[in-house]
Design brief:
Elements: H1 86-123, H2 139-169, H3 173-206
Helix pairs in contact: 1-2, 1-3, 2-3
Length: 210
């Protein structure tokens, strides 16, 4: 067997490739933060201030006075408005007029009715039946007593209703409560006064009381 010819062997054998190593710096500059879109600042470097005039109002529109300024006073619940107590006071005044005014007028009328009727009864023979003609001399006092009753009733109902409204709305609640109480007791006081003064007048007219 013949030996290979040394003249046909390659003079420079191919070099072996070197092991790969990462570059020391990025070939295209420092990349932006992960997930950041091109053209936006890197979140890791902080947000940059917006350019001057970026949010300025359009031409011809001025910003309102005080826009963007911090409030100078603390916010709080507004103070409740003070309500007038006139409603309850008027109701109380009406209740007093209905109760004491009507009772006083009825007291005068009742005493004079009893006085005049007693004199008529004592001057007539006793029959055991009441004769309404004894009220003829005192018919004016009877009319006064009736007017006192109806006027007192009307004003008392008015005072009662207005007092309830004053209590509900809180406009003179204390006076409204007093008005309701006095107006409710008005008919009782009126009846007691009429009964008492009528009896006193009859006793004086007939001479029973001496």
């Amino acid at each position: 067997m013949s030996q290979p010819d040394a003249s046909h062997a390659p003079q420079n054998p191919p070099a072996q490739p070197a092991a790969w190593a990462p570059p020391g710096a990025a070939p295209f500059g420092t990349p932006v933060g992960a997930g950041a879109a091109p053209g936006l600042p890197d979140a890791s470097q902080g947000w940059a201030a917006p350019p001057a005039g970026a949010y300025a109002p359009p031409a011809g529109y001025a910003a309102p006075a005080g826009y963007g300024a911090a409030p100078t006073a603390a916010f709080g619940a507004p103070a409740p408005a003070k309500r007038s107590s006139a409603l309850g006071i008027v109701a109380l005044a009406l209740a007093l007029v209905a109760t004491f005014g009507a009772s006083l007028s009825a007291a005068i009328a009742s005493f004079n009715i009893g006085l005049g009727a007693g004199r008529q009864i004592s001057s007539q023979p006793f029959t055991g039946e009441f004769d309404w003609s004894v009220l003829t001399p005192v018919r004016d006092w009877v009319l006064m007593g009736e007017v006192s009753f109806w006027v007192g009733t009307a004003i008392g109902v008015w005072a009662l209703v207005q007092g309830i409204i004053a209590i509900v709305k809180g406009r003179g609640r204390g006076a409204g409560i007093a008005a309701v109480v006095i107006a409710a007791l008005g008919p009782i006081a009126f009846g007691a006064v009429v009964q008492g003064f009528l009896t006193a007048g009859l006793a004086a007219g007939t001479g029973i009381g001496g």
